[in-house]
Write the structure tokens for this entry.
Amino acid sequence: MASVKVYGPAMSTAVSRVLACLLEKEVQFQLLPISLAKAQHKTPDFLKLQPFGQVPAFQDEGTTLFESRAICRYICDKFTGQGNKSLMGVEGGGPAERAMVDQWVEAEAQSFNPASTALVFQLVFAPGMKLKQDPAVIKENEMKLKKVLNVYERRLGETRFLAGDEFSLADLCHLPNAHYLVSATEKGQLFTSKKNVARWWDEISTRPAWIKVLEMRSTTV
Amino acid sequence: MASVKVYGPAMSTAVSRVLACLLEKEVQFQLLPISLAKAQHKTPDFLKLQPFGQVPAFQDEGTTLFESRAICRYICDKFTGQGNKSLMGVEGGGPAERAMVDQWVEAEAQSFNPASTALVFQLVFAPGMKLKQDPAVIKENEMKLKKVLNVYERRLGETRFLAGDEFSLADLCHLPNAHYLVSATEKGQLFTSKKNVARWWDEISTRPAWIKVLEMRSTTV
């Protein structure tokens, strides 16, 4: 059995981020389902793995980790010689190359993620949970996301991907939330109406690793 | 002149984070003031450095970066042989050691920062800007911050610092927001009422690098 274990449902955006990274890096892993509906992420055993009671949790030999972006960086650093070798920057690029990826991972985490997570919750998960949508929250976060994507539009007019001319962890981190918005809401035009963002989205969302994550979502809980 | 340049006001929490890191690493730098009141962070020239119009921006030789946590990781990776050598994990610890720091940097960024930033804005900056405080926002974020600090209290009962027994970037990242809450609001008891968190806060907030940042704040714009 693979030593790498991911705990969580594949439908979770944070879990999907880690799965996409493992598949890009061609790392064997086990996905151990955690039911959020049954509150399995709040059990004492799970809290030993993830003290905030969130998914995913991650294990590799003696290492237990949480936080999807930290897990992804670990996967890149641990399995440096296999699969996609430029997720954290082109090989031999040094600290500046790595930092260029890292700043766009942070832009995703600090700017893209809060607005897109609020929209995904309101437009995708709330209806499924029979919760009422909040039009003010939707409007506010759509405005915020537009501003972020305006920055991306300019950047992607200069470079093929966010951190440069190679697909990297910075692009990968956007896949889960953007996928929900483009495929399951009417807000996809936020992406598809912008020339460079639309080209970028087409390219990153059709990568084999991400297609495989989507297949896992349809076949696992 | 030092080749490292930080653009932004020292009173900004994100700028302070970078300054604390540079001082821990004993890196020479220039701090170039950017007036938020005069909207200098929205000028075309500044937007070339920081496309989101936020502070800080950072330059080192040919490298221009934004996002404080990405800048801090870059400083640790670039100036690996000087100053505090365990900010990104004890030397020779490998990917797992680095990831342990990184997951707690992410916990700060994803859990501590949103709640504490909302409180700092409401309780410190809003009154200074003659903006009305929102009691519902204060209450909601105080609850969120309490939950985060409950996790920290348990963690800090096991280890001296968040990532282990050495001070790291994970602890450092908390300094700016926590300082405002402890020193300039009535919410300091969120920290000081918890045995382990209080001990941790005493230790990290009295480090010479942080004291120096506070001195810079009082002598620069």
About this structure: The mean pLDDT of chain B is 96. Chain B is about 55% helix and 5% strand. Residues 94-207 of chain B form a domain with the Glutathione S-transferase Yfyf (Class Pi); Chain A, domain 2 fold (CATH 1.20.1050.10). The first helix of chain B runs from residue 13 to 24.
